[in-house]
Every structure is written in C-alpha cells, then in structure tokens.
Amino acid sequence: xxxxxxxxxxxxxxxxxxxxxxxxxxxxxxxxxxxxxxxxxxxxxxxxxxxxxxxxxxxxxxxxxxxxxxxxxxxxxxxxxxxxxxxxxxxxxxxxxxxxxxxxxxxxxxxxxxxxxxxxxxxxxxxxxxxxxxxxxxxxxxxxxxxxxxxxxxxxxxxxxxxxxxxxxxxxxxxxxxxxxxxxxxxxxxxxxxxxxxxxxxxxxxxxxxxxxxxxxxxxxxxxxxxxxxxxxxxxxxxxxxxxxxxxxxxxxxxxxxxxxxxxxxxxxxxxxxxxxxxxxxxxxxxxxxxxxxxxxxxxxxxxxxxxxxxxxxxxxxxxxxxxxxxxxxxxxxxxxxxxxxxxxxxxxxxxxxxxxxxxxxxxxxxxxxxxxxxxxxxxxxxxxxxxxxx
Length: 391
Ligand code: FAD
Ligand code: DHB
Hints:
The protein is of the alpha+beta class. The protein is about 35% helix and about 30% strand. It contains ten helices and 20 strands. The strands form four sheets. The protein has an eight-stranded mixed sheet with strand order 6-5-14-15-16-13-17-20. Helix 1 runs parallel beside helix 7 and helix 9 (about 360-375) crosses helix 10 (about 375-390). It is globular and about 65 Å long. The two termini are about 40 Å apart. The structure holds flavin-adenine dinucleotide and 3,4-dihydroxybenzoic acid. Flavin-adenine dinucleotide (FAD) binds next to helix 1 and helix 7.
C-alpha cells in the first residue's frame, strides 16, 4: 500500500469519488479513504435528482452509460396546490435542459466500479481518520486499516466526508464562519411497491403539510411527507401515511396515488448550513462537509458534484502550471453557487411547507406565490432554471 499520493480524499460519497475520478482523467493520482464498507456505501438511500450539468459530467467522463440506460429523463415538475397540478416545463424555459432521476447510490456504484477498473486506490472500512499539517506543504492523513495505524502523505487533502466527517472539525477554531438555519419540520421518506401515477415529480402544498411524489422505477415509488423533525418512524404506521398522502394530495381533479406495500421508511432532518471559507491551507472542503441544503430543491448531490468539478480543475491547474490562482479562488467560486442553491432550497421549502403557528394569512401568501410561479412566464422560468441548475 502506498503511503504517499498527490491528493488524499476523505470520504467515498459523490464528492470524494467524483473528485478521484476527475483527477484520474487528468493524470493526477489520489487515494480515497472511507469509513463505511463498500456494500454500505452502495446501499445508502439518498437523493435521486441529477441536474443536466451533473448528467453531462457523468457522460463526458465515461461513467454515464448505465444512467443513460436506466435513469429517467424528466422534462418538468408539477406544483400541486388548491387541488390542482400545474406543470413547469424545463426544456422550453432553460435552453433545452432537463433533469434525470437516477438514485445517488447507483451513481456511487458506477463511480466505484470505474475507479477500481482504472486501478484507483479506494480504501473502505478505515477508522480513526485524523488530518495533520494542513498549514504546511506536506499535509498528512493518519488512519487505521484492519487495526493497523497508517499515514498517508499528500500534496493536498480534499475533505469530502459529509456533514459529520472529521475534515471540517480539523480546522482550528475561529477560522471558519458558520451559517445555520434549522427548519421546524422534517420529511418522512418512504419507498412503496406501486405503479407510477405521474411521469414527473409532484411538489404538493396543502393545509395539512407538504407532500412529494417521486419515483424510482415503474414499479417502485418514492413518497415524502412533511413531519415533525423528532418523529420516529413508529409514529407513522402505514394507515397514517396513506391517510396523509391522500389528504394532502386530494383535489377537484380526483388525482389519487396507487397504494402498495411500503417497504422502507426514514425521517430526514431539514437544515441549511454553510461554512466559509471552504478551505484551510492545503485542506479543501467539498459537498456536505461544507454545506447542507434542505432537500426541497434536490440540490445536495448536485452541489457536491459542482464543488469537485471546480476543485479538480483547480488542483490540475496547480500541477500543470505551477499556479494556484484557481485553488486560491476555489472557495469563493464554489460559494457563489452554494448560496444560489441555498436560496432556491430555502425558497422552495418556505413556499411549500406548513410552518408551526402559520395562520391563514401565511397560507394565502404561499398560494399567491404559487399562483405567480405557475402563471407568470418570468417566475416560472426562474424556478425552471434553478431546478435544472442553470445558475
Ligand atoms: P456524503 O454523501 O455524506 O459522503 C461522505 C462520505 O464520507 C460517506 O460515505 C461517509 O461514510 C464518509 N465519511 C464520513 N466520515 C468519515 C471519516 N471520518 N473518514 C472517512 N470517511 C468518512 N439530497 C437531495 O438533493 N435530495 C434528497 O432526497 C436527499 N436525501 C437525503 C437523505 C439523507 C438521509 C441524507 C443524509 C442526505 C440527503 N440528500 C438529499 C443530500 C445528498 O444526498 C448529499 O448532499 C450528498 O450525499 C452529498 O455528498 P457528499 O459526497 O458531499 O457527502
Ligand atoms: C427526490 C428527492 C428530493 O429531495 C426532491 O426534491 C425530489 C425528488 C427523490 O428522492 O426522488
């Protein structure tokens, strides 16, 4: 096992694996260290909405073949309120862009397969990861593998270890500024064996709370319900889930979901978080290690990919031209997009959810906003552009 590499990458999520893949394509070597097993990484259920830019990057770097075959292209979404659905078309308002539904763990399977096929060094089930020497020219990652202590010397370290990782806390206190916003609700996510009743995602506003209808395959659907952030899944027996889904989606058009066995349930907390800058010395943060968005805008995975696209380009430039301009600008450049996405996710969340204490005035404001978004071409284009990632 090598104990020296150009870029030490902490975390084999979308950010870490994509970074390793992009660097390899440009001739820069990396080692990826991951605490979970490969099987766990490949089985963790999370996001599924890929922006056009994410899709294009996967295809242009040779890891998009299965996504093109098995993913579903969606050319619009529906906003449902006042008992009716209103479609927002993407291609006509965004210069031909769309989104693709392809689950995050499938993206990870494809990236892991590509890294290993190319002889990439991805080490699963490591433990006790610690970062050292961030301010010098030779940062190090200490970790244990199979119970044996090891050290990896690097030129750069990429902290791609998610919100609960070690990279961000390795930065000395006082260096980072944190921006945090917690929401007073969560999402109950379900997987259901049932046929699809709509070809596109439905975001539903209702006085009973938010509901989201998404899909995985023609026979497996993904439904979400706004819930208390402290709810355990036991608080949500199947009958309650169906009653809330039907109640929140009910309308004069009679549109109704098909029921089926619910085989997975989980509660997701909702938080907005940004840390600035996304760098300390030779440590660069990317993805959830630096920012979290509420899932309403489907931006988390896409931001992780756009961060590492910038970071890869900057690292490659620093080797090719012995210049660090792009690396020096990485944090500022990435944060521009992060804040745009933060705003979109917050705006979608505020427009669609029932907040504790909301009175009818607040509900009417939300409905007025939804009317505008679905009837004004300018407002609708704004949503479409943000959703497909054209910002
Ligand atoms: P992660 O995917 O978190 O990957 C980080 C990796 O680092 C993990 O594999 C972790 O095991 C590893 N790691 C952690 N600590 C260490 C350590 N000390 N050493 C080494 N490795 C470490 N986004 C959406 O857009 N829509 C959704 O519906 C949606 N659902 C979500 C549901 C859940 C439960 C969660 C948690 C997130 C969801 N997201 C969703 C967000 C999206 O999945 C994330 O934004 C995305 O995974 C970020 O990728 P990442 O690579 O930055 O981090
Ligand atoms: C899905 C998740 C989201 O957060 C979202 O906004 C749309 C779809 C999904 O899991 O399919």
